[in-house]
Amino acid sequence: MRPDTPAENVDHNAEAARLERTADRYPEDAEALLLQAAAHLELAGDRPAASSLYDRLLAAQDGLENPFLVRALKAANLWEYGHEAEARAIIEGVRGAAPRDPAPWVIVAEALESHDELEQAQETFTEGARVLLTDVAEPPYSTHPLLFGRHRVRRMLGLAHDDWDVLADTLHSSPVSLDELHDPKRVWSLGSENPAELEAEISRLRAELGTFRAALSRPFPVAVLHWSAGELAELVAGYPSLSSEYPSHEEHLATIEASLRELAASGTPNLGIVSGTVPSYEAFAASEGTSPAEVSLLPQYATTLAARGRAVEWPPQRGAACWCGSGRGYGECHGE
What we know:
- There is one protein chain.
- The chain has 336 residues and is mainly alpha-helical.
- It contains 16 helices and three strands.
- Helix 7 (118-133) packs antiparallel against helix 8 (144-156).
- The two termini are 42 Å apart.
């Protein structure tokens, strides 16, 4: 689907079928493509077909990058068409696994919230925040929806602000405060005949829409290209001219970390790392009609991988393994 295609003009079934065909052609990107296809099927109202795609992904769970995200999406989808018991069981499984990715936490918590399970939603948002944000000085952008959702549910429950609610207020950049956006009494103003109340509600809705648009318009990460030791050795052996770009694997890893830290210090948001493979790179070079030996092709390849959803967030979440593949924690490896 073209980015400028109006949502009301999208044939969601056709788009889902196109994405499935593309996934068959590019199995390395199948997870991201099939998740998009499932989303289109949900929008088309074919929730059983969407569940089938989630099941297809979970059947190959060993190869999934984000299995808990798939499970969370499946649970939310199942609940929407009457499979509450199964959805609840999956949600409990996701919570028990305590994933290090904020997205599954947000999805299952919002599923509970949408079905008026506010206490359980609040507990789920809080569990996610505890797992991901304890002793974290600056919450990554990907965790902001976790804090905002928690703030919203706690406001509906009438709970007093705590430190994470204050942090959510600080991170929120809209001209309308979170307290006002999440005010449970807002629903009454929608039926008001008072022009002042209606005008205030219109302002709040515009602020919310602006926040959603800002989130949706965030570009894919500014991604730095990473090669494993084996892939880099194969790349340089096949294209010796690239040895000037990659004198050694150790220097390559050090350059990645230094580049990302420099970008972060300059205020560049949404940083990530993409891992390349020689066959994928050669195929990309062929599609561009360029030799893989061209140094200028490397950043283009990184950008393409990021656009396909292949980037992993940098810096890694607290306690996560280092991006370099050493198996050590990031704080004990390149995060030292």
